[in-house]
Amino acid sequence: MIPVYQTIVSDESKGVHGNCFPACLASIMELKLEQIPDMQNTPSDWFNILWDFLINNGYEFYGTGTKEDVYSYSIGIDGYYIVNGSSPRGVKRGHAVVFKNGVMVHDPHSSGLGVLEIWNYFMIERSLIKGK
């Protein structure tokens, strides 16, 4: 995991969505933020964009887990996974951070405050399909 910081922060009054999730994805995949597709500005199609990107890069999305399971999940990408939760800055869409072994290890926001309450986590793992 190589920490990547978000370059866009949410400003709901202007309709701007932050890129914390792409920054988390870049972090756990050890890519540059510019290599991650723009998902935050495509609210109705973000999952298809994510799915295609993961498959084309040798990863798979296995689903989301509940906040009750977030502390026991340990597969992820080398043990790292993305957690979504309520933002300390009051952003309604929430905030994404990186966890490992049930502990936050990276917040892509410069404040480093993480999330106030965990909503769910994303199970992204290396593909089991040979050749991916």
Written description of the protein model:
By secondary structure, this protein is an alpha+beta fold. The protein has a single domain, classed as Cathepsin B, Chain A (Alpha-Beta Complex), CATH 3.90.70. The chain is built from two helices and five strands. Strands 1-5-2-3-4 form a five-stranded antiparallel beta sheet, with helices on one face. The protein is globular, with a radius of gyration of 14 Å. The model has no long low-confidence stretch (mean pLDDT 89).
Binned strand content: 25-35%
CATH class identity? Alpha Beta
* Poorly predicted parts: none
Could you say how many structural domains there are in total? Answer: 1
SSE succession: HHEEEEE
Mean pLDDT: 89
Number of strands: 5
Derived structural class: alpha+beta
Number of continuous helical runs: 2
CATH architecture: Alpha-Beta Complex
The main sheet comes to: 5 strands, antiparallel
Summarize the structure in short.
This protein is of the alpha+beta class and 132 residues long. The protein has helices at 20-29, 46-56, and strands at 59-66, 80-85, 95-100, 103-106, 118-126.
Write the layout of secondary structure elements.
Elements: H1 20-29, H2 46-56, E1 59-66, E2 80-85, E3 95-100, E4 103-106, E5 118-126
Antiparallel strand pairs: 1-5, 2-3, 2-5, 3-4
